[in-house]
Specification:
The complex is a heterotrimer of chains A (about 475), B (about 100) and C (about 475). Chain A is built from 15 helices and 16 strands. With about 475 residues, chain A is α+β, with helices and mostly antiparallel strands. In chain A, helix 2 packs antiparallel against helix 3. The longest helix of chain A is centred in the middle third of the chain and has 20 residues. The radius of gyration of chain A is 30 Å and the shape is elongated. Chain B is an alpha+beta fold and about 100 residues long. Chain B contains 3 helices and 3 strands, in the order ααβαββ. Helices cover about 40% and strands about 15% of the residues of chain C. The longest helix of chain C is centred in the C-terminal third of the chain and has 22 residues. Chain C is globular, with a radius of gyration of 21 Å. The chains are: A alpha+beta (about 475), B alpha+beta (about 100), C alpha/beta (about 475). At the B-C interface, helix 1, helix 2 and strand 3 of B face helix 9, helix 10, helix 11, helix 12 and helix 13 of C. Strand 9 of chain A pairs antiparallel with strand 3 of chain B.
């Protein structure tokens, strides 16, 4: 049986507002329990919600960035259910009239092709508190600091067909919300959470199979593993003659399997109705224009521009545009160093591996964009060779200052005086007269390798400072005789 | 639309109200008489009428994004039935 | 001193005829003596009252004045009062000392009022007789075997018995106007959004409004002045300037167009009340008003619509009472579900539980359209009816209730018949319109009220009409025997 996998994702992003969506409490992560829980957050009798303007702005920004319809008359609704981390016994969310309607996000697949993933809608809602299951003499402790933090729930169409596509979508969404400055994307802290809806159907079938929802998967790696293990489970279940029951599941990374969530065993009737404590949110065209003006250049446009303006390949452009910090770093380097392709190479390869080794992000890079740009300038103006540049780069990473300072201090200036190079080469050839004879006697094929020997000797003699191009040219001429 | 015993049990569960078995018949009867009153609404033709959620048709005011609330844990937890280490306690929840 | 109206007290204090502290102490003594007969208070706040009275006297001595400075009153027990029990008439909140003051409470305290206590009410404001309170029923001072009306029955009885000059109430389906009518008081439900709901424990959020209850329209004007105003803490609060209500009391009623809906005079209406209503119309005509018949064709659908919308909103509003962060918690809960079910079953009375269940049902999957949505559509039809009527008249007049106060216990086995008593008042809540009830006579010794409705934010008009009526009639000056 050929199976087709259908995946839809619900991504919850915590918006980086100062205060909560319906109260003036701080949204800072990691504070002492219940020290950021006001009357409104505790659901104290008589308390009432008032909507945070920044949350609305951020949601609209997101909607515009994914080319979506904006719900210019959107309504908050109550989702009613009982759970200890939900103080009011209902979550204020949006149901029939969300703030963002249909949009789309393009993802780049492994083979380089672009696939358009539909976004059904995105809506604002409040986050719940946290349950701590560490033993409090057989009780669970509830911390409501998080209750009321604004969330933007982004619902995709069931357009993904593999775990890898799903991961690509989440990564693209993660990059986008960070790009827009509306969410810090910190999955470990729960700023971005992913629920995966997975179903399978025989290839060619139009109707969807029964889906299961895997809740709260908190890393890209786990998303891929969770989806794959769920696909496996469903296939095995059906092929063994069983039926998939719609249920909510959790991924257990230790066992690499999903299991049903006990607390969600019964289907919940959420009894949605418009929240009578809040009025409909009306978004005027002027508000839209205002927000549109604050949109940064987004990854797709940046990718295009990196290709057209800097002549980068699709792949290089994609990588460099993938995060706002990296794109900004790259452009800064180019603005100083001039050569975009050289900059692309250094940022992606040398800098990339340095950051990896040190385990830091680009915004904590030990080599600043100014430093790197300055160094690239010295390569293009021939002050140093590419090989020497690697030494300079390492020195800058160790805090030895700018490229010029390092070059000066360590005397790394490249020798470009052809007279000096010639006399150095003459000395080298004289010192290796036997090899010179062998070279001249050898055929084309053998000469290639022997040539390298002379280049090596020349570099040694000049302590790497001789301009490699000139060495090559002059050496060739001298060896030809 | 008459409710039977199992309907009432379902609703009571949705609303987390513990009903005694003995009370269910009386509650069922009471609910049915209220629903009988309410069912008179079905006679009204409301085609093309927009629901009215708020009497005065105003729109939601937006609040500036600023932290205006401090830490009042001690005051608010002074009236709580069960707290420990600043956390509200409930019987253990198993996920 | 207990015979003085709020306005007379204000003048007396200003003229230094007595101090706020004297007045307060005298009323507290009177309450202790007489309240056991009517059970209008849940909590007395003697210490707070004396402190506030002394502070008011000090402010007056320092040259401040204001109609409410030093005036004693009480708050219905669903207004949060910081550090003081706020019970909503329920076992669920018997141990709830509110950690903050409602905006209404804070505003009135800032104006210098003196809080004598928290008044009894139907549990969570659900009722029309004040028989469902955890703290026992309230008795009507006009006849102790009869109900005072509800849900603001405690505030009504306390003021009617002259235990204090005025009190705050709330009105969701008539809970200020109906008890005012049954106890010979003037009570006003403002336009929805006129008074802040911050700290006012919610029953039905889109219908609830706080308002004044007192013996005269003038008193209501003075108290409303201190209650009304935009509040940034309440998203449903409307930013509309508050006029000077006292200033509009004395306008002439010449040319005032009064509409009397033909649908008001149906078979359910006690004929004695019908007569008194028509008599009040005659009085108003003498003052220059003109009367015409109007129509409110969807009136009959108001009660069913209300008994879907209010319970639906309440079922959700009351979910927060779960034994976790405040309020009643059952003993030794076995597990989470047991905690919820037993805390709520033991904490809430039967009427509250019934309405929660009706509400949950009305919102549940498969029933939402037929019940909740249908009710909201009928709500629009009712609003439209009023908009049409107000295109032709300035106020709408009619009975406040179909019957005078009934005997305590008479409707115990028939809650629906209690619901039907809301017939005249409910539409104002559904449409959000301001409404006032004023005394208009007696039926076998039991008070009868006449209701006036006006367009949005025309509380001044209502108070004006009532005040002028009260200049030429004396129903509102009568007091119950024994009090």
């Amino acid at each position: 049986m050929q199976w087709e996998v259908v995946i839809g994702l619900e991504i919850h992003t915590q918006l980086t507002t100062q205060s909560k969506i319906f109260s003036g409490s701080s949204t800072t992560f990691g504070s002492e329990p219940n020290t950021q829980a006001s009357l409104v957050d505790l659901g104290m009798p008589g308390s009432l919600p008032v909507l945070n303007k920044e949350a609305v702005q951020m949601a609209v920004k997101f909607g515009l960035a994914i080319d979506a319809e904006i719900g210019q008359h959107n309504v908050f609704a109550r989702k009613n259910y009982f759970y200890p981390d939900l103080p009011k016994g209902y979550q204020i969310s949006q149901m029939e009239l969300p703030i963002v309607g249909k949009g789309h996000l393009d993802i780049t697949l492994e083979d380089g092709t672009i696939k358009r993933i539909g976004v059904t809608r995105a809506h604002l809602e409040e986050d719940a508190g946290k349950s701590l299951h560490e033993d409090f003499s057989g009780m669970t402790g509830i911390d409501l600091n998080r209750a009321g933090t604004p969330l933007l729930e982004i619902v995709s169409e069931p357009d993904m067909r593999s775990a890898k596509e799903a991961v690509a979508y989440v990564k693209a969404m993660h990059a986008l919300v960070r790009y827009l400055g509306i969410c810090d994307g910190n999955m470990a802290e729960g700023s971005l959470r992913c629920d995966c809806n997975v179903s399978i159907r025989p290839k060619g079938q139009v109707e969807y199979g029964t889906r299961c929802e895997i809740k709260n998967v908190n890393s890209f790696r786990f998303i891929e593993k969770a989806i794959n293990s769920e696909i496996q489970r469903q296939i095995e279940l059906i092929e063994d003659g069983g039926r998939v029951i719609q249920q909510t599941r959790l991924y257990d990374p230790a066992k690499d399997e999903t299991r049903a969530m006990r607390s969600k065993e019964e289907a919940n009737d959420y009894r949605y109705f418009p929240d009578p404590d809040l009025l409909p949110v009306v978004i005027e065209d002027s508000f839209l224009d205002q927000v549109r003006a604050t949109l940064p250049e987004l990854p797709p446009q940046k990718r295009e521009r990196f290709q057209s303006q800097f002549g980068l390949s699709v792949y290089d452009a994609s990588v460099l545009a993938s995060s706002r910090e990296q794109a900004d770093y790259f452009e800064k380097v180019v603005s100083i160093g001039g050569d975009a392709k050289l900059a692309a190479n250094w940022v992606m390869v040398e800098l990339g591996s340095l950051l990896n080794k040190q385990g830091v992000e680009i915004d904590e890079s030990p080599v600043s964009a100014e430093q790197l740009g300055g160094m690239l300038l010295r390569i293009t103006d021939n002050t140093i060779s590419g090989k020497i540049a690697k030494m300079v780069f390492e020195a800058m990473a160790n805090g030895e200052g700018s490229a010029d300072e390092v070059i000066e201090k360590r005397g790394l200036k490249q020798v470009t005086d052809s007279g000096a190079i010639e006399s150095m080469l003459d000395e080298v050839l004289a010192a290796n007269a036997e090899q010179v004879e062998q070279y001249r006697a050898a055929d084309e094929a053998k000469r290639g390798k022997m040539f390298g020997f002379f280049v090596g000797q020349a570099m040694k003699a000049s302590k790497g400072k001789a301009n490699p191009q000139q060495v090559n040219e002059l050496l060739k001429r001298k060896l030809e005789g | 639309m008459a409710l039977d015993r199992s309907d009432v049990e379902k609703i009571a569960h949705l609303a987390r109200l513990g009903l005694n078995d003995a009370d269910i018949p009386r509650t069922t009867e009471a609910l049915n008489s209220i629903l009988g009153l309410v069912d008179q609404m079905q006679a009204v033709d409301t085609t093309g009428i927009e629901p009215l959620a708020h009497p005065l048709e105003a729109s939601q005011r937006l609040r500036e994004d600023a932290v205006t609330e401090g830490n009042h844990r001690d005051t608010y937890q002074a009236i709580a039935p069960a707290v420990q280490d600043g956390l509200y306690l409930v019987p253990k929840v198993i996920d | 001193m207990h015979e003085l109206t709020l306005a007379e007290i204000a003048r007396g204090l200003a003229d230094k005829k007595f101090s706020s502290e004297e007045l307060t102490r005298s009323l507290l003594t009177r309450i202790a003596q007489l309240d056991p007969q009517i059970n209008s208070f849940i909590t007395l706040t003697e210490d707070l009252a004396i402190t506030q009275a002394q502070a008011a006297d000090a402010r007056r001595a320092a040259g401040q004045n204001g109609a409410l400075l030093g005036v004693p009153l009480a708050h219905k027990d669903l207004f949060c009062t910081k550090g003081i029990r706020t019970s909503c008439g329920s076992k669920m909140l018997d141990n709830f000392k509110a950690p903050y003051d409602a905006t209404v409470v804070a505003k009135l305290a800032a104006a210098g009022t003196v809080t004598l206590g928290k008044t009894n009410m139907d549990e969570f404001a659900m009722g029309s007789a004040n028989e469902s309170s955890h703290y026992g029923p309230v008795k009507n001072p006009w006849n102790l075997e009869h109900v005072p009306g509800g849900s603001s029955g405690g505030s009504a009885a306390a003021v009617a018995a002259r235990l204090l000059p005025a009190a705050t109430g709330t009105d969701t389906g008539g809970s200020i106007r109906q008890p005012a009518a049954l106890t010979n008081l003037t009570g006003l439900k403002p336009t929805y959004g006129r008074v802040s709901r911050w700290g006012m424990i919610a029953y039905a959020s889109s219908l609830d409004q706080a308002g004044p209850m007192a013996r005269t329209a003038e008193d209501c004007a003075l108290l409303l002045q201190g209650m009304a105003g935009f509040d940034t803490n309440d998203s449903t609060s409307i930013d509309e300037p508050v006029p000077d209500y006292a200033a509009s009391l004395n306008g002439s009623l010449q040319g005032l167009r009064i509409g009397v809906p033909k649908e008001y005079f149906s078979t359910g209406l006690d004929p004695r009340i019908a007569d008194l209503v028509m008599a009040s119309v005659e009085e108003l005509k003498k003052l220059g008003a003109v009367v015409k018949e109007v129509s409110l064709p969807n009136l009959q659908h108001a009660i069913p619509a209300y008994y879907v919308i209010a319970p639906a909103e309440a079922s959700s509003n009351l979910s927060r009472f779960d034994g976790v962060r405040f309020g009643y918690r059952c003993e030794d809960p076995k597990d989470l579900t047991d905690l919820y079910k037993r805390s709520r079953a033991e904490g809430f009375g039967p009427e509250v539980q019934r309405r929660i269940m009706v509400g949950a049902y009305a919102l549940s999957a498969g029933y939402y359209d037929a019940y909740y949505l249908q009710a909201q559509k009928i709500r629009r039809l009712i609003k439209n009816d009023f908009m049409s009527a107000f295109a032709e008249v300035d106020v709408i007049l009619g009975p406040t209730t179909p019957n005078p106060a009934w005997k305590i216990g008479a409707k115990n086995n028939d809650p629906i018949s209690a619901y039907l008593e809301d017939f005249y008042t409910i539409t104002a809540n559904l449409a959000g319109l301001p409404g006032l009830s004023m005394p208009a006579g007696f039926a076998d010794g039991l008070p009868v009220g006449v209701q006036l409705l006006a367009p949005y934010f025309q509380e001044g008009r209502l108070l004006n009409v009532a005040h002028q009526y009260q200049q030429v009639t004396d129903w509102h000056t009568r007091s119950p025997a024994g009090f």
